[in-house]
Amino acid sequence: xxxxxxxxxxxxxxxxxxxxxxxxxxxxxxxxxxxxxxxxxxxxxxxxxxxxxxxxxxxxxxxxxxxxxxxxxxxxxxxxxxxxxxxxxxxxxxxxxxxxxxxxxxxxxxxxxxxxxxxxxxxxxxxxxxxxxxxxxxxxxxxxxxxxxxxxxxxxxxxxxxxxxxxxxxxxxxxxxxxxxxxxxxxxxxxxxxxxxxxxxxxxxxxxxxxxxxxxxxxxxxxxxxxxxxxxxxxxxxxxxxxxxxxxxxxxxxxxxxxxxxxxxxxxxxxxxxxxxxxxxxxxxxxxxxxxxxxxxxxxxxxxxxxxxxxxxxxxxxxxxxxxxxxxxxxxxxxxxxxxxxxxxxxxxxxxxxxxxxxxxxxxxxxxxxxxxxxxxxxxxxxxxxxxxxxxxxxxxxxxxxxxxxxxxxxxxxxxx
Length: 417
Ligand code: AMP
Ligand code: MG
Known about the structure:
single chain, six-stranded mixed β-sheet
């Protein structure tokens, strides 16, 4: 059950608009993570959410092995001041040398090869001089040098991947190095979405006057595709309460989350709130942020509902700030909020007090200094300033002016390596 929220938010811009952080906490508190799991071969778990803590059944490495191509010795067996040795054998990766090492002898070892049983140091090949079958070693040797110890990466019974982590390429490496073939992952939540608006036509139709192509459904598809969810594109609904009710009803029968765009504000053709009031409940519908002030959150039967604004930039911002967190919680992903960094703005910036503002920006590093510039016009209909951006510039509610050269908070879109 969704909690009833008191109208606690007061701000000078819109007294009914809910504070951003309160809205996030409210949404997260109201969402109950799904419990079902499925067992999959590890390759198919990429991007999926781990269902249980995963324990190591082996040590990694599983045997002492050489970190270098070189020569293995036993430091104690080396006679005083005699650092001239004879090569007695070779240990290759996958082909160990099984005899014991005798005095004044050395075994050639390759990277990854088993360290012969009574050896305790490896000397790099490049440090050894060979003359007449004698090997001349450096005199300073340290115990265990160039030896990778049993369990130095993973110890048997360590938890190597925690429940709620999203499997990436490194996890696949860990799982395969432990000989794990299959794991349990959380079932994918089902997310249905549709656009609303009498003006919207599909991209395979000719445009007539006053009509526009529906871009929000493609944007939402792109955003959802990055998450471990089942996507149900439910098309477009006209601005008509009856149509909306019918569509929302049918979505609620098969979705964990329903997302709509448009029709959520106070215009004459905005029917989302009315439809939602008749079908389920609305917890709130205004948030003190720009872009994205009208954002409805509620429930229809067992489905959580997000009514995003129609302007494409507002739809993206509200999806990223609120819907992503909701989906992650539902999908069982461990909580990870966005990373914020500081940068110097190369523009004068201004905004109204009383709401948080997300401007689209372009972040760069010049001579190790973090800089950010606005990436174009900031209207919530201007999609190009979003497609040219690589970050948001987040300006706090109480800020009204920022001067060129001042520090601002930046949220990078994707952190690449
Ligand atoms: P609304 O929130 O319905 O008042 O819409 C706000 C603005 O966003 C209007 O200019 C709409 O035409 C536009 N809009 C609404 N839905 C979409 C959509 N699916 N694709 C592109 N623009 C849209
Ligand atoms: Mg509309």
